[in-house]
Amino acid sequence: MEKDFMNNREQEQMAGEMPMVAYRLMQRKVTEVLMKNLGADKTNEYLRRAGFMAGMEFAKNTLDLNADLNTFTVNMQKALGKMKIGILRMEVFDSDTGDIILSIGEDSSCEKPSAADENMCVYDAGFVAGVLEAYTGKMYDVREVNCCAGAEKRSCSFKGTVSG
Ligand SMILES: [Zn+2]
Asked: Distance, CA 126 to ligand 1 centroid (Å)?
């Protein structure tokens, strides 16, 4: 039988949630202010750094860093889905080099595609780098290789290369 109402615990959890639209709006406005004052290069650098810190904290607080790669990936998929960030797909993982390609689909930043939204992906690239470093202990350079902003695609792809 389907339930019509949230139980108390679910209501409590909802109270602590920030709607994705509010989150993205804040992200856009912070980006706009940074862009106006610092220019594109500095803005991207700071967004990447902020994303990195967020990814690190997210991984340390939410994920089991000792899990094997498959379990880790599944846990991350669940966590990102639960937070409505998007659907994570591991596309390629080279176990020799540690290089990785993954995509985040149905991202809320894909809903209103515009060039400005590409900045959202710089933050996300930093986020992915933070998660990967927390898990592997290696430094990753993560770049977006395919963006859904302004395109027909429904996902953004990121390529991570071990950089140290
Ligand atoms: Zn993108």
From this structure: 12
Q: How far is the CA of 110 from the centre of ligand 1 (A)?
A: 7
DSSP assignment of 90-139? EEEE-TTT--EEEEEES-GGGSS--GGGHHHHHHHHHHHHHHHHHHHSS-
pLDDT digits (tens, 9 = 90+) for 42-57: 999 999 999 999 999 9
Q: Look up residue 13 and give its amino acid.
A: Q
pTM over 0.85: no
Q: What is the CATH class of 22-162? A: alpha beta
- What confidence tens digit (pLDDT) does each residue in 17-38 have? 677 778 778 888 988 999 999 9
Q: For residue 149, how far is its CA from the centre of ligand 1 (angstroms)?
A: 6
Question: 24 CA distance to ligand 1 centroid (A)?
Answer: 13
Sequence ranges of the domains in the chain? 22-162
Q: Give 4 Cα–ligand 1 centroid separation in angstroms.
A: 36
